Automatic annotation (TrEMBL):
It comes from the Bacteria. Residues 2-97 form the GntR C-terminal domain. The keyword Kinase does not apply. This is FCD domain-containing protein. GO terms for molecular function: DNA binding. SUPFAM superfamilies: GntR ligand-binding domain-like. Gene3D superfamilies: GntR ligand-binding domain-like. The lineage of its organism: Bacteria, Bacillati, Bacillota, Bacilli, Bacillales. Keywords: DNA-binding, Transcription, Transcription regulation. Transmembrane segments: none annotated. It holds the Pfam family FCD.
Amino acid sequence: MLKLILKQQEEALQNDDAISFIRLDHEFHLSLTRLANFTIIEQVLNNLHNLTQLMGLKAVSKLGRMKNVLMEHTQIIQALEEKNPELASQAILNHLEKQKKH
């Protein structure tokens, strides 16, 4: 599921479609929380959906941010595929830190 979302985000990037990119970003994060069994975080993300959409649009409007988000999501997926929880945690923290800066 995560790889499919990532592929769709790549297409949104190629089409310079920030709206679809952000919608897919939300789906990626929800899928990740479901995979990790973080029910409470999933509920929080759903409750904050509109706010996170606005924040995401602001972030990806910066030149190159959509491409960077794709690379960060790829790193998360790779760590999960390698079954490396430390690397996955670090990739997620890195993604969150970079989002915070934008």
